[in-house]
């Protein structure tokens, strides 16, 4: 195996003028967002607690087109490398790591500088940090970043909330880095306080719903309709040409065409995947918030329940045995006689209607929170900046890389 290319010098001090923006936290999302910003023509300083990730970022910056990325291994040099007013974007794990990173950087920040947390943070943590930063004259944004690693590199949907001046300082950078659609860049100032994080949380909850709906549509086609994998692939392919067009539907079609490389008889890989999933938490927060605000969000709640139930694999296998013994064998539904064509069309319509309901539930939740907090959120703007992330190209990457 070839040894990795040596890292370029840590701080290529040749870039001038100094960067206006820095990014701390160079795991996958941070690295990709930093490279994206640099590629759009904005020099950027980068820092990570563990220096190896600074080196790997610099190697990528060099390999992906000599991008203007300046590496730093200590927080002081990192902060002081920035032109004032400084903006430091954090992409570290939500929770205590954000506080630790803020503690490491703030001694060197000055009044008027800004911190932008790009993680999937609980909105109340952002509201606490806005107050703590304000006591030092520092501006603060909590910014949802949607699109997983590919979105971060090539155009995420950005949901910044908090101090509007912090947004205005880097608005031009965010507008260039964000996904571009015919309706403009996928970024807007969401609102004050933790509004950006809250909106990102609901966005993820809506995606939980989307995935559950697609899974249930598949289940009906398979169990009730008795469709084969290749027939289901064709159905999703066809659906992707109509009002259901989205990346999730597109990749669902692809999933059914992949053969199991370990199965000599050419069986489909999808039938070998364990039906058991985990989650990272934003769906649970969404449902908790819906309950707190007395907003019905049945699709999102059902998707969360679906994940909990999927985790109970052993119990489900045991229960199937009990049902079998009681005269309800697996595959009972497959014995129902249905007209496949009619079924496929009804499932398509049901999927579309359910999806609309799910989005409405999410929007309703955001509206209720906006009223409670006095955030005055613009729902149409949110729908606009979600265009690429919820419907577009980056969905699959978010399933892999983001807070789902
Ligand atoms: P690391 O590379 O030094 O572990 C995702 O885990 C990112 O969050 C990484 O960049 C990681 O830095 C960073 N991170 C996690 N915990 C942290 C902490 N307590 N302080 C600073 N950075 C942290």
From TrEMBL:
Homodimer. Pathway: Carbohydrate degradation; pentose phosphate pathway; D-ribulose 5-phosphate from D-glucose 6-phosphate (oxidative stage): step 3/3. NCBIfam families: gnd, PRK09287.1. One of its GO terms (biological process) is response to water deprivation. It catalyses: 6-phospho-D-gluconate + NADP(+) = D-ribulose 5-phosphate + CO2 + NADPH. Residues 196-404 form the 6-phosphogluconate dehydrogenase C-terminal domain. GO terms for cellular component: cytosol. Gene3D superfamilies: N-(1-d-carboxylethyl)-l-norvaline Dehydrogenase, domain 2 (1.10.1040.10), NAD(P)-binding Rossmann-like Domain (3.40.50.720). Keywords: Gluconate utilization, NADP, Oxidoreductase, Pentose shunt. This is 6-phosphogluconate dehydrogenase, decarboxylating. InterPro entries: 6-PGluconate_DH-like_C_sf, 6PGD_dom2, 6PGDH_C, 6PGDH_Gnd/GntZ, 6PGDH_NADP-bd, NAD(P)-bd_dom_sf, Pgluconate_DH. SMART domains: 6PGD. Belongs to the 6-phosphogluconate dehydrogenase family. Catalyzes the oxidative decarboxylation of 6-phosphogluconate to ribulose 5-phosphate and CO(2), with concomitant reduction of NADP to NADPH. One of its GO terms (molecular function) is NADP binding. Its EC number is 1.1.1.44. It comes from the Eukaryota.
């Amino acid at each position: 195996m070839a040894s990795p290319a040596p890292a370029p010098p840590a701080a290529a001090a040749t870039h001038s003028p100094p960067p206006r923006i820095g990014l701390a936290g160079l795991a996958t999302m941070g690295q990709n967002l930093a490279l994206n910003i640099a590629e759009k023509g904005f020099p950027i300083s980068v820092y990570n607690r563990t220096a190896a990730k600074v080196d790997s970022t610099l190697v990528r910056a060099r390999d992906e087109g000599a991008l203007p990325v300046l590496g730093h291994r200590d927080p002081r040099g990192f902060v002081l490398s920035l032109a004032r007013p400084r903006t430091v974007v954090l992409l570290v794990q939500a929770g205590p790591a954000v506080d630790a990173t803020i503690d490491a950087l703030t001694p060197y920040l000055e009044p008027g500088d800004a911190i932008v947390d790009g993680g999937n943070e609980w909105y109340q943590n952002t509201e606490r940090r806005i107050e703590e930063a304000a006591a030092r004259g520092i501006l603060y944004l909590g910014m949802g970043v949607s699109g997983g690693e590919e979105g971060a590199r090539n155009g995420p949907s950005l949901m910044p909330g908090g101090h509007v001046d912090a947004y205005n300082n880097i608005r031009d950078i965010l507008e260039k880095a964000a996904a571009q659609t015919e309706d403009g860049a996928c970024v807007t100032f969401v609102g004050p306080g933790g509004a950006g994080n809250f909106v990102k949380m609901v966005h993820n909850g809506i995606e939980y719903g989307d995935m559950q709906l697609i899974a249930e549509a598949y289940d009906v086609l398979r169990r009730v309709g008795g469709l084969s994998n290749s027939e289901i692939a064709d159905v999703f392919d066809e659906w992707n040409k109509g009002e259901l067009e989205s990346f999730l539907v597109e990749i669902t079609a692809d999933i059914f065409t992949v053969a199991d490389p370990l199965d000599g008889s050419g069986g489909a890989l999808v039938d070998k995947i364990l039906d058991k999933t985990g989650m990272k938490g934003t769906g649970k927060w969404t449902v908790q918030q819906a309950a707190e605000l007395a907003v019905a969000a049945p699709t999102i709640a059902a998707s969360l329940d679906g994940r909990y139930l999927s985790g109970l694999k052993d119990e489900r296998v045991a229960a199937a045995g009990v049902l079998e013994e009681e005269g309800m064998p697996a595959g009972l539904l497959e014995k129902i006689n249905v007209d496949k064509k009619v079924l496929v069309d009804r499932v398509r319509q049901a999927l579309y209607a359910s999806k609309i309901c799910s989005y409405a539930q999410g929007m309703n939740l955001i509206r209720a929170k906006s009223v409670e907090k006095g955030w005055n959120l613009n729902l149409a703007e949110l729908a606009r900046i979600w265009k690429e992330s919820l419907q577009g190209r980056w969905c699959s990457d978010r399933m892999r890389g983001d807070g789902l």
